[in-house]
Amino acid sequence: EYNSDLFERETIRRLLGHYETLLAGAVAEPERAISRLPLMDASEHARLLEIGHGPAATDEAPATLSGLFEAQVARTPEAVAVAFESERLSYRELDQRANRLARHLQTLGVGPGELVGLCLERSAEMLVGLLGVLKAGGAYVPLDPGFPGERLAYMLADAGVRVLVTEETLREGLSAHPAEVVSLDGDAARLAAYDADPFVSPAAAEDLAYVIYTSGSTGRPKGVEIPHRAVINFLQSMEREPGLGPEDVLLAVTTLSFDIAVLEIFLPLTCGAQVVIASRESAVDAEALAALISSAGVTAMQATPTTWRLLLESGWSGDSQIKAMIGGEAWGWDLAAPLIERCGSVWNMYGPTETTIWSAVRQVQAEDERVSISGPIAETQLYVLDEHLQPAPIGVPGELYIGGAGLARGYWNRPELTAERFVPDPFDPDGRLYRTGDQVRYRADGSLEFMGRLDHQVKLRGYRIELGEIE
Length: 471
Prior knowledge:
34% of the residues lie in helices and 24% in strands. The strands form 5 sheets. Strands 2-1-10-9-11-12-13-14 form an 8-stranded mixed beta sheet, sandwiched between helices. Strands 15, 16, 18, 19 and 20 form a 5-stranded antiparallel beta sheet that branches. Helix 4 crosses helix 5 and helix 12 packs across helix 13. The N and C termini lie far apart (52 Å).
């Protein structure tokens, strides 16, 4: 007997099945600890592992991020790649300017494994800087000019940055450091003298593409090491779903120091679309953002729930051609419902920096009536595990672990923290899993319900903040 106001029939059937399995396990092994007794039979265990597996990658691709961009340059050299205010750069022009910068960086010793600081205001030059570092074979370390000087100084020192790409107006704001400075505007004449022809980057799939710093519980930010192979798997999966193509215009609103900016910059540039860069001022001004969406003919935008709420509260009427991608922190139906009414499609994006931006993508439909996580991207596994690293049954909370092609190498110069957060995969002797610290549970339909954090981390406007760092 059960209260049908509280329980569905399938829930009770699962509970009975778990109880039967528990009793059978206790009788079979009476000396076994209760915490180690099984709740699920073999078929349910196998199903829980199966529903968390994303599809296999199907496309062949260049080994590096710069190679993926260069392949697109060859396909659409005259198409507009980037727009910022009144400036436009074609794919060919952007490629040539990045090639010149890359050749200069190589004369300074930049190559695979070298971390290059990147401190630039939002503009077309920001993309030149990004691509120039990658083409030279290095990995970029984004340094937001709006960050406190103390944090920027720590990141420069911790990453061991020898070369810093910046611009004249920002030089004074950076604390004293030993890095050699390349100023995109101050050194413009010197850079223009370099050959702009294509060349093959010395980087390989396993080399680092970027190291991005996130908040640290010890009070010190930690650098997450992301290799090219992880970014390429991510971009190819995003191109398929939510989907982006040559006809699209994506509005980039996110600082480079937040890893979701990788989608906003590189997804358009590797599938022939156009990226429109919003200035720092426009990105936080709802009326300016709405005007830019309209004037630029934007068809796709990714932002945190805070930015989308900002737009709605300003009276934005929406646009039926816009693909709205939302992630960075938990959000609910109060935001989903008005966006579904105003946009062509709405997508929930979930994933931590350590597994390369987004690990799961789900389109939110009007009939859903709630926002949930599901749809692991290509070559990605999502597991809800208990404290013994065994699958938690449907409806039972556990910690979300993520495995697959998107996993970071680890944390820069933090082997102990890497070992703590990246653990051996109990279902694959050659694999690793990242402990997200997110508590979730499976629903009967295979989607995941987010239930909060298992630690003291909080999210503010999408940023991960450790309270220890505030202290």
